[in-house]
Write a structure and sequence with these properties.
Length: 376
């Protein structure tokens, strides 16, 4: 994209660039600007919130807590926005809050340089793990002192709210995390806010207690939606949605939706779930893990029935699927030049997958990955 194209691109709708969140008009404008270079199914509807998003999103999980990776992520995020990615996913605990801050710098630059308008970008983050700040503590004792000082002494969490040494979904804790994430990202509104790995709580509490804790969290998140600090919410899981109901750590999608309806009726803002889905982790497609009435079905089928968007994390399994795929995969996914493209194409091909998240802190990898959905 040329300098002149960057200057004029978001001006298609007068005044819309001042919106403080993603909008239907803004995301449609972004899609129209970039659609010619991608396959017809590249931009997809994000559940019931009337947004269009790119079906490849930038993830920001891996990396060191240092300035070099900060610069790489910020440059990759800026280039992603300029190149046709409108969905960026992060979490407050990624890289000691530095991933959120790098994304915030990239978005600020992109809006300032008129590469995108704020209402064209769907910005997602997560809360649940106690985040470190800038650098990890040197010792376990320093970490415990940090948790005591920042969260327990301030009343944001009770000791019994924190499980596994650092996971908390208490409403006051999550509310404070939303405020900090908004500051890190430099935005008024987070478009989708995920409760991060709620199944972690089952290391210490019963399923009934987890339901009670999630209900309290959802009540707070609905208030946050009403106040405009977030636009929608969901749950990002690792194992919870892809293990069977008789397995410790199982999370029921139907119960999550039911909790949201109990809190806010059909007006609820529970919109999306996130889970690993890739060539090696196919449980969401093939394994019956979700109870719907008298039937147990795979997660993607349950999500379709319940009207919840599915975002696939770990599309390349943290780089493990970016190379050395077997020839059978090459045969099944022809027309691509790299294994990373084949792995991304597989995830994008699955029904009900809104977007495939790919960790990207290299501009070169960004363009390689986008070729999985380029025309021609």
């Amino acid at each position: 994209m040329t300098k002149n194209q960057r200057r004029t691109a978001p001006s298609h709708a007068s005044g819309s660039s001042s919106a403080e969140r993603a909008t239907a008009d803004g995301t449609k404008r972004f899609a129209e600007r970039h659609a010619a270079r991608f396959t017809d199914d590249y931009f997809r509807s994000f559940s019931n919130i009337q947004l269009l998003v790119s079906s490849i999103g930038q993830g920001t999980y891996l990396g060191e807590c240092n300035a070099e990776d900060d610069r790489d992520y910020a440059e990759a995020a800026y280039s992603a926005l300029a190149s046709g990615i409108s969905l960026i996913d992060t979490a407050i605990n990624y890289r000691c809050q530095r991933s959120e801050r790098a994304v915030g710098r990239a978005l600020s630059r992109a809006v300032r340089e008129n590469t995108v308008a704020r209402d064209e970008v769907v910005l997602c983050t997560k809360g649940g793990y106690i985040p470190l700040d800038d650098t990890p503590p040197a010792t376990r004792e320093e970490y415990q002192a940090y948790v005591e000082r920042e969260y327990i002494a301030t009343g944001l969490a009770r000791p019994e709210d924190i499980v596994a040494g650092g996971h908390c979904i208490a409403p006051a804790f999550l509310e404070a995390q939303i405020a900090r994430s908004r500051a890190n990202l430099g935005v008024e509104t987070i478009d989708v806010y995920y409760v991060h790995n709620p199944e972690q709580q089952l290391d210490a509490v019963t399923p009934a207690e987890l339901s009670a804790r999630l209900r309290s969290a959802f009540e707070m998140l609905e208030r946050q939606c009403d106040s405009g600090t977030i636009a929608a919410y969901g749950c990002a899981t690792w194992n919870g949605l892809r293990v069977t109901p008789d397995t410790r750590g199982h999370v029921s999608l139907a119960e999550l939706v039911s909790l949201a309806r109990d809190v806010c009726g059909d007006r609820h803002h529970f919109t999306a779930v996130q889970l690993p889905l890739n060539l090696a982790c196919t449980e969401a497609v093939r394994l019956p893990t979700q109870q719907l009435g008298t039937h147990t079905v795979p997660l993607l089928e349950a999500a379709a029935e319940l009207g919840v968007a599915v975002v696939a994390s770990a599309s390349l399994l943290q780089g493990k699927l970016a190379r050395d795929l077997p020839s059978t995969v090459h045969d099944a996914l022809p027309g691509f030049s790299t294994d990373a493209q084949r792995a991304i194409a597989f995830v994008r091909s699955l029904p009900m997958v809104t977007a495939a998240l790919v960790g990207m802190k290299s501009v070169r990898h960004l363009h390689e990955n986008l070729a999985a959905a380029r025309r021609g």
